[in-house]
Structure formats: C-alpha cells, structure tokens
Design brief:
The protein is α+β, with helices and mostly antiparallel strands. Helices cover 55% and strands 16% of the residues.
C-alpha cells in the first residue's frame, strides 16, 4: 500500500502542472472570499437596519400628511380608506392619528418679570407614539393643570434666535420645565384658563402636544363643531429608508420628513453593490470549479497509461480515487478556512471602526456565513469526487 502511494505521488507530480494548479487555487480563493464577504455584508446590513442596538427612537417615527399642491388646497384631510390602506402596508408597524385643536388658544406668563403672550395651537397623539415619559402626563376634567410636550426645535429657536432679538435670557430645559404659565382656551361661553407646564421635549412631532383627554374635551366643549378628519398621521416603521415606503408615499401623494427617508437611495446603491458582489463571487466560483475540474482531468489523462498499468496489476479503482481525493481536496479546506479567517479579521476591524461612531454590528462573523462556507465546501467535495470517479472509470476502460 505504501509503495502504491509512493508510486502514485511520483506520477501525480510528473503529470500535474504547477501553474495550472496555482491558477485553480487562486481563482477558487478569490471566489470564496467574494461569496462569503457578500453574505457577511448582507448580515451586517440587516443588523444595521433592524438590530435593537441601532434602532432610532426618532427616525423610526414619521409624521405623514398629504403633499400640498394648488389642486388640493383646503382638502388635505386624510380619509378613512387612505389611513386603513396605510395600516395594511407591510413596512408600517402602527399608525396613530394626530388630532389638531379646533379651538382658539393662547399661552401667557404668570410672572411680570418674564412677560410673554402668544396665540398657539395644540395637537395630541396616542401615548404609544410619544418619546417622553413623565408621571404628570395625564389630564381629567377635574384637573386645572395641563402638561405640554414641546419640540426641541422650539427651544433652539428661542435660545439662538428669538431671545437675542427680544433681549431675553436663554433658557435650559430644566429652567423651562420649572416655568408655570397660563393656557387660555376660548369657547362660545368665554375663556377658560388652566395652568400649564412643559413636562418634556420631543423630536418626533414638531408641534405642541397635550394629552388626548384634554384635546377631546376642549374640541367638544370649545370648538362647537363636528368631528374633523385628521390631516396628519404618525407611523412607526422598522426602516424609514425602505425604498418601498418612499415609493408608496410618493405614489399616493404623501410627504414626510425628507431627512428621515433620504437614505432610501443609498440603500438601493448598497443593495446593488452587495448583489453584484455575490453574483461576481458565484460566477468566479463556477469558473474556479471548472478550472479545478479540468486540472484534475488533465492530471489523470497525463497519467492514463500508468493508471491502466496499475489497475492491470491489481490496484483497485477505489484506492486510486481515495488517493486522488486526498491529494486534491485538502487544499480546498485550506481555502475555505483561510477565507473565513480573512473575513473574521475584517469583520472585527469593521466592528471597532463602527463602534467609535456608535453604530453596532457583531464583532464576529455570522452563523450564516459559516453555513454557506460549509455548503460550498460540500459542493466542492462532490464536484471533485464526481470528476475523479468519472475520469478514473474512463481511463480504466480504455
């Protein structure tokens, strides 16, 4: 047996072309790295979009309204069918109605040291869409206190524009939350006043928010009109940059904050790049397997006389098959392991780089990447075995 292996080793060395072997190994290595990299990039991509550590409590909520044009001025209310159709979309997790105030209101200072007065409008939204948690966020008819949530942009506007022009002091969030002001609600029977206070700041909705209970009470008692259809809704979505979401809004004449959906085009570019990488890797894998198969065929063909002689002298074709598999398949294991190690190193480097920017992916490669590597290794083993068995059989029949 040892003499047979020694003789076969000499035959393979003399029949195999080193350049062809190196070319086959190099092509297979590049193809393997491209395919596994494409799989890992797709896994990272999905983790960036849907991972809990990367969820954005602001960007994942979009305020949607009809796009105002010359044709729909005064008719921008959303119908029940339009809202229900929006709820049925796969990229929408939930929909909340933004209820506007249909009554006149104003706020004014209770202090002569810091006088101000302005007319104002409120909105309300279901509590599940509010990003402020405060024990004071409640109201009933027996309460004289109305909590208010203010957009951060309002405070920025006051501190960096309005306060300078009016010679007023700048205010921090903590100071604003301490200020008690008067809310005046105008109705058919006169003015009803409440104490108000800012209980939180939000980036989700760019309007002054009050509890739904207060809004329903005030609209019913002070507006004196029938129920108005909502003109804006807030939706929760797992991916505000989803091209399908952007296409739906555009196709139905709806608009939202462009900053939150501007990554839609970038996503399409990334999808194309990832798909091209995967397809390129698959094509290269097919060519590499073809080259490797041809290399095996040429090696066996160059030693055909010697193999016929060995079979005539009693060597079993199965022994020849096992020997050739032992010569040609182990390098493929090294290629797969090397590709996995290379991708693991790049994955960890990418993890450290993104972590600095507070963007999180897994520090190690995905189980999907390892699974695809094992599947490809099995495919290579089957191709090698089939090619060796086929051409040994042909040579033995000659």
């Amino acid at each position: 047996m040892d003499q047979l292996k020694h003789l076969l080793t000499k035959l393979i060395r003399s029949g195999a072309g080193r350049s062809r072997f190196v070319m086959a190994i190099l092509g297979l290595s590049i193809a393997m790295v491209l395919i596994l990299a494409a799989v890992q990039i797709q896994v990272n991509y999905n983790e960036l979009l849907h991972g809990k550590r990367n969820q954005d409590s602001v960007a994942n909520f979009l305020v949607v309204n009809k796009l105002l044009t010359d044709r729909n001025i005064g008719a921008t209310a959303l119908t029940g069918d339009e809202i229900n159709d929006l709820k049925r979309q796969p990229f929408v997790q939930s929909v909340g109605l933004l209820t506007p105030s249909r009554f006149k209101a104003s706020i004014q200072s209770n202090s002569e040291r810091f006088p101000f007065f302005t007319e104002i409008a409120f909105e309300s939204v279901p509590n599940e869409f509010i990003d402020v948690t405060n024990k004071d966020w409640r109201w009933d008819e027996g309460s004289n206190f109305v909590p208010v949530i203010v957009p951060n942009m309002f405070l920025d506007f006051y501190n960096f524009q309005f306060s300078f022009s009016q010679n007023l002091p700048q205010l921090t969030r903590e100071v604003v939350k301490m200020i008690i002001f008067r809310i005046n609600v105008y109705g058919p029977n006169g003015i009803t006043s409440f104490n108000g206070r800012v209980v939180g700041f939000s980036d989700r909705v760019s309007s002054l928010l009050v509890p739904e209970e207060f809004m329903d009470w005030a609209n019913q008692r002070m507006a004196g009109a029938g129920e108005a259809k909502p003109s804006r809704v807030i939706i929760r979505t797992a991916d505000p940059g989803n091209p399908a979401l952007v296409q739906y809004l555009r196709g139905h004449g709806l608009s939202t904050d462009a900053d939150k959906t501007r990554f839609s085009r970038y996503r399409q570019v990334v999808d194309v790049v990832v798909n091209i990488s995967g397809v390129t890797g698959l094509v290269m894998l097919l060519f590499a397997l073809l080259i490797f198969t041809l290399f095996i065929q040429l090696t066996i063909a160059s030693c055909s006389r010697e193999i016929i002689l060995l079979i005539t002298l009693g060597a079993a074709p199965r022994q020849l098959e096992q020997f050739l598999m032992g010569r040609f398949f182990p390098p493929n294991i090294g290629i797969v392991v090397g590709a996995l190690i290379l991708i693991t190193v790049f994955q960890y480097i990418t993890y450290l780089y993104l972590k600095i920017m507070h963007i999180f992916i897994s520090p190690g490669i995905s189980v999907y990447t390892v699974s695809i590597a094992l599947i490809l290794l099995i495919v290579i083993w089957l191709v090698n075995r089939s090619s060796i068995r086929k051409h040994i059989g042909k040579t033995g029949l000659e």
